[in-house]
Specification:
Radius of gyration: 16 Å
Distance between the termini: 12 Å
Strand content: 15-25%
Oligomer: single chain
Order of helices and strands: EHEHHEHEHHEH
Number of strands: 5
Number of domains: 1
CATH architecture: 3-Layer(aba) Sandwich
Largest sheet: 5 strands, parallel
CATH topology: Rossmann fold
Shape: globular
CATH class: Alpha Beta
Helix content: 25-40%
Number of helices: 7
CATH superfamily: Flavodoxin domain
Strand order of the largest sheet: 2-1-3-4-5
């Protein structure tokens, strides 16, 4: 089965890193399904049953997004709140994420050293992404970690982006 990549980027056409990553993943339609939330739901009215069925049709799930205020963009949060429902994702008979491999592909605007105990934010990106790990664990999914591109806002040179693509694809394939 294929991996579902749910991307939430409010301005993907102007993104350098996420757009390049998705463009590369699109080269493998037999392995990856790209699901762009901001494109599909510009009105933010999510078809919950459709989204749940889409997840069920895939063996693995990747959530891909730029870090926004130490979290995901608003539509990704809304999607999680509405799609990961009691009775479907968790709770009585809620086992649709059970044993499903899941991971995150994220971009952070500033450098990795800012995401450290001694850095600007005093926390690592792993710590900032902990709510996602807890959510996946709560739903009995197999959280496989994250792939990150740091300094996406200020140092996303063509070379750095190109060099990040194999790591991104390897991460997706490892899920």
């Amino acid at each position: 089965m294929k991996t579902l990549i749910v991307i939430a980027h409010p301005n993907l056409k102007d993104s350098k890193v996420n757009r390049a990553w998705i463009k590369e993943a699109e080269r493998y339609p037999d392995i990856f399904t790209i699901h762009n939330l901001y494109e599909i739901y510009p009105d933010e009215l999510i078809n919950i049953e459709k989204e749940q069925k889409l997840i069920e049709e895939h063996s693995s799930l990747i959530l891909q997004f730029p870090i926004y205020w130490f979290n995901c963009p608003p539509l990704m949060k809304k999607w999680l709140d509405e799609v990961f429902t009691d009775g479907w994702a968790y709770g009585k008979n809620g086992n649709n994420l059970e044993n499903r491999n899941v991971g995150l592909a994220v971009t952070a605007g500033i450098s990795e050293n800012n995401y450290s105990k001694s850095g600007k934010y005093k926390h690592t990106l792993k710590e900032i992404l902990l709510p996602f790990e807890i959510t996946f664990n709560y739903c009995s999914a197999n959280y496989k970690g994250f792939n990150a591109f740091y300094s996406a806002e200020f140092e996303a040179t063509d070379k750095r982006i190109k060099d990040s693509i194999p790591q991104y694809i390897n991460f997706l394939n490892s899920i």
